[in-house]
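Entry for the shared binder. Reason: the reviewer on the internal report wants the predicted structure included alongside the sequence.
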Amino acid sequence: MAGLRDKLPLLLGAKTAKALSTALDIETVSDLLRHYPRRYAERGEMTDIAGLELGEYATVLARIEKISKRTMKSRRGTILDMVITDGKRRLACAFFNQAWREKELAPGKTGLFSGKVTAFRDTLQLANPEYQLLEPENEAEAVDNFAGAIIPVYPAAAGMPSWSIEKCVRQVLDVLEVDEDPMPAELLKRYGLSELEPALRGIHRPESWAALESARQRLKWDEAMAVQLIFAQRRHSAVSRPAKASPHTDGGILDAFDKRLPFELTDGQREIGDEIAADLATEHPMNRLLQGEVGSGKTVVALRAMLQVVDSGRQAAMLAPTEVLAAQHARSLRDMLGDLAQAGELGGAENATRVTLLTGSMGAKERKKALLETVSGEAGIVVGTHALIQDTVAFADLGLVVVDEQHRFGVEQRDALRSRGAEGTSPHVLVMTATPIPRTVAMTVYGDLETSALRQMPVGRSPIKTSVVPVAEKPAWLDRAWQRVREEVGKGHQAYVVCPRIGDEPPSDKTDRPPLAVLDVAPELEHGPLKGLRIGVLHGRMPADEKDAVMRAFAAAELDVLVATTVIEVGVNVPNATAMVIMDADRFGVSQLHQLRGRVGRGSVPGLCLLVTETLDGTSTRERLAAVESTTDGFELSRLDLELRREGDILGAAQSGKRSTLKLLSLLRDEEVIADARTCSQAFVEQDPELKNFPGLARLIADVVDQDRVEYLEKS
C-alpha cells in the first residue's frame, strides 16, 4: 500500500517518476493526487475550442474533420495537415514528416489531442500534437481507463500528456491508503464534508457528477484551511509583538495641516483616517491595507497618518516601487505641507518637520546628508525605494511604514520592515494599492491585514475612452492610432507610448517575437509616424537624475510624447497628458492596464487609451482586453481579472516559480468557504498557536502549500 508522503519511483518506476518531476514538479503521491484535473470531458461531448489561449499546453476532445498531405517547399519532407472540430469551431494540426499517421487519423474519428497552441498565418494550430483516439472497438478499455463517461483532462506538459498523467494516477489510486484524515472529524461533520481518501478518488475517477462535486467541495476546504491557517498564525504572532503607541496630539503638526487643507476631506477619507488613527494609538502594530482607485485621495490619508506619528516624536517612512515615484512622492508631500516641511529653514513653521528623500542612486554627498537626517530624527518623514530598508539605513525611532503599491516589492524587502522598529518594537504598517481587490482576495492574499477601501472619486475627473487596436486583423488601425496622437499634440496636449520591455536585454532563444521595446519603438516613431514631435524616453535602468530630468521635462510640456515602460504606472501626474498608446497590450494584466490608463484624463480634457495587440479574436487574452475596453470601474475590473486568469497565481506562483496553490478554490465563487475556513482557522490557532495538538492540520499546510509558498505567504 502507498501513503501520501511516499516517493513515486517505487510506485511508477524511475523513468516515469523523473518525467513527472521534470515536467510538472511532482515528487510524491500527495503531489500527484493534488494535481487535479483542469476540467472534465464527457464521452460524446467535444471540448470548446474557442477558449484556447496562444502559448498554452492544451488537451482537447475533438473530432477529425479532414486530413491531407503536402510537400514542404523550403526543404525535403511532408506536412500532414489535419483539422479537428468541436462542432462549432475548428483547430488546425500539423504533423511534420509523419505521413504514416494518415492511415489511423481518419475523418470522423474522435480523440484526445494534446500540444502547445501556436499560430500559423493568423490561425491557431497544434504542431505535432500527441493524441489518443477513442476507438469504438476499445470502448471497454476506455471506460475502464476513464471510470465511465467522465474523462479527466489534466494540466499537462510536453512529454507528459493528460492521458499519461491519468494512467499514473490510476496506478497510485490502486494502492492508496490514507492513514489519518488531516481535517478534524468535528469540522468534517459540521460542514458535511467527505473524508480525504474518498475525495481524492472522487476527484480523479468520479462515478457521477454528484460524486465529483462532493470531492471538489472537500478538497476546496483543504486549500482554504491551509492558507487561512498560515494567516491565522501570522495574525496571532502580530498581536503578540509590541509597538509604540502614537495617539493623536492636540495642537500638533497634523492639526495645523488639517486647518490649511484647501479642500474638504471626503467622508471616506475621514472615516478611514479615524480607523487608522485608532490603530496607531494602540501598542500592537497596525497592519492595514488601504485600497482605492487612482486619484481617490490615498496619499492625503497616508500623510495624515504619518503626521500623527511625527507628532508623537517618531518617524514615518514611505516606500515607493521606483525612484521616479519616490522622488515624485517627496515633492508632492513637501508641496502639500509647505512651511510645515521646512524644519530648520528660514520661513519654516514653528512646529515643522522635514521630508527627506533617500534612494540608492543618490550621489555620495547627498546620500550622506539624507542618512544623517534619518538617523538623527531630524527627518520626520523619509521617502525612498527599497534602499530605505537596507541595513546601512538607521532610523532614530521608526513608528510607521507606508508601502505604496505593495505588489511591486519583493518578499524579503517587505519582511525586512518588521524588524526596523526601535527597542525591539515593530513599526505600524499601512499598505496602499490603487488596484481594487475583491473581498475574498483580501481575505486570502492579505489575510492578516485589516482592509479599508476608498470608493469615492474626486469631483471633476475626466472620462477615459479605451479602444482595442487589433493590428493582426486591421493593420490600418495602427496608422490611425498614431494620427490620433498627432491630433492630441496638435491641440496642445501630450501622450504616452508604453512598451513592455526596455530593449537592452540579451537576445532570447525563443522563436516567438519578443515584446516590443522602448529603445526600439522610440526611434521608429521619431523617424516615422511621429516625425517632428518632441519624443522622450523613460525606463527603469536609466540613472536617477536622467529619469527625474525626463519626467520634469514632460511635466513642463517640453516633450510631446513620452515612450516609457511601466515606470509611469503609478503616481505620475501630468494633467496635460490626454492620450496613451499601449503596445503589446496583451502582455499586461487587466489591473496593470487599468493602472496605466489612469495616467491620462487627469485634467479637464477627456483621456484616450489605445490597446495595441496582435492576438486573435476569440482568445481569452482578447477577452481581457475587451473587459478593459468595456469599463473604467476598477472594482469591477478586479473581479473580471480574477475570472479570466488562473486564480492560484495570486498566491505568488509567479514569484516562487512553483505550482499554484489554489487549484479548485475560486476566490469569487467560494466566498462562503473562505469565510468559514477563516473563522475555523482562527479558533484552532487561538486554542493552539503552533498546532501541536492538531498535527493533521500542520500536515495539511505542508501538503497543500509548498514550502516556498509558505515562506512567501509568511513574509508577504
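Summary line for the report: The two ends are 39 Å apart (CA to CA).
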